[in-house]
Write a structure and sequence with these properties.
Layout lengths: L29 E7 L1 H4 L15 E6 L10 H15 L9 E3 L5 E3 L18 E6 L10 H17 L7 E3 H4 L12 H5 L2 H12 L1 E7 L1 H12 L2
Parallel strand pairs: 1-4, 1-7, 2-5, 2-6, 3-5
Antiparallel strand pairs: 3-4
Length: about 230
């Protein structure tokens, strides 16, 4: 009846002093990182003979050649690929992605295929990222490390691989190589890099966007400009 207690008339709605819960509007930030496609940096076609594999760990290399000026990076990448195919007899550039001093990321061998190594470890299951430079004699840059962290965060999410799998070439070929150099390896060995990548994974999603066609060629021209 009018004036009675809530519910006396069969009305099951909550009292007007209560407000219904608002739906959550929380979203995960998305960070987009750009990758220059193979054709953009002038990659040669891959040869036959690559072996398929499934990614299960994240592994870092350096090229072992000092990079005097970053404008030389695309040409250096072409030279690496030519050496790998013509001198090593490998079907393609050994690595899946490359990062130059200014943080530009380049598409390498398809991650669907196993990479290659001149040392005694089996790269099956490894997601191989090479950072351009010789970090036994030169430092990394923060821009370069930032791109490395975000690329590894993308790979960790995309392949459902734990950041505790982040290691380096030296870890799998001890005594055979100093790769990725004494100025980069401590970040891997201490777990500092893995922790930074884990924080990115926890806080945001990472998406790769490939620069293709004229856009990729134009970006490389900007990098190579004197």
């Amino acid at each position: 009846m009018p004036g009675g207690e809530p519910g006396e008339t069969g009305d099951t709605r909550p009292p007007t002093s209560q407000t219904p819960e608002e739906p959550s509007t929380t979203t995960v930030p998305v960070r987009v990182i750009e990758v220059i496609e193979r054709a953009g940096w002038g990659a040669a076609p891959a040869d036959a003979g690559m072996a398929e594999h499934a990614i299960g760990r994240l592994t870092i290399h350096h090229t072992g050649v000092a990079l005097e000026e970053n404008r030389l990076a695309p040409g250096r990448l072409r030279a690496h690929q030519a050496f790998h195919q013509n001198d090593r007899g490998w079907p393609d550039l050994a690595y899946h992605f490359a990062i130059d001093r200014n943080g530009n990321i380049y598409e390498g061998r398809s991650p669907a295929f196993r990479g290659d190594t001149a040392t005694n470890y089996n790269p099956t299951g490894h997601f191989l990222v090479v950072v351009e430079g010789n970090f036994d004699v030169e430092p990394t840059t923060e821009t370069q490390l930032g791109s490395l962290r975000h690329l590894l965060a993308w790979a960790a999410g995309h392949y459902a691989v734990g950041v505790d799998s982040i290691k380096s070439h030296r870890d799998y070929a001890p005594g055979e190589t100093s790769c990725p150099g004494d100025n980069l390896y401590p970040l891997v060995e201490s777990g500092e890099l893995a922790r930074a990548v884990g924080l990115i994974v926890a806080q945001e999603a990472t998406e790769l966007i490939y620069l293709r066609g004229e856009e990729a060629v134009g970006r490389v021209a900007e990098i190579e400009a004197p």
